Amino acid sequence: MDSKKMFHSGISFQDFVNMDEDSYKEKTLEVFNSIDFSDEFVERIKSIDKNIKILICAEIWCPDCMINVPVVEKMKKMNNKIEISIVNREGNEDFFKKFSKDEKVKIPTFIFYDEEFNLLGTFIERPRIVKEVYRTGNQTNIIVTMRKYRKGEYIEETLKDILDVLKY
Fold first, then answer.
1. Domains of the chain with CATH codes
2. Which of 3, 28, 78, 140 has the greatest CB tally within 10 Å of its CB?
3. Which of 106, 45, 56, 52 is nearest to 78 (CA)?
4. Which SUPFAM superfamilies does the UniProt record give (predicted)?
5. What is the residue-wise DSSP string for 101-158?
6. Is the whole-model pTM more than 0.90?
7. Gap between the Cα atoms of 168 and 164, Å rounded
8. Whole-angstrom Cα distance, residue 73 to residue 54?
């Protein structure tokens, strides 16, 4: 399946959240409702002047998805040039594995396209700052960082990485 067909086969954030009726939905909406980007980031989001399509491979039960998928939905709410489409990993592995270093599809995977579906870049799983802590191998730092990450303390790092990919 090509990128355009994959994008059009996806669902909205609301439909994604409604795939669950309990704690996953609650946590995802809690993250979404708690997002309060700084003025600098709001301006950067609003400055996006080209149509951007974000294809997201995600599962509602995934903690990284509960944290990071709401970030792009919040961006979409702030700028109508941003469109998102969410597809499950299951059944779409062949499409998404080409974006992974080891051919294992990590979720969430965000693929950014322009309006003609030219690839702009990707965001995979977690923000760069969290991945860098993992690379150090320091277990204490990893535990502390992951606790902060799971509480949503790196939301703006996710946004920063996304805006860097989009060059805004």
1. 3-126+157-166 (3.40.30.10)
2. 28
3. 45
4. Thioredoxin-like
5. SSS---SSEEEEE-TT--EEEEEESS-HHHHHHHHH--HHHHHHHHHHHHTTTTHHHH
6. yes
7. 6
8. 10
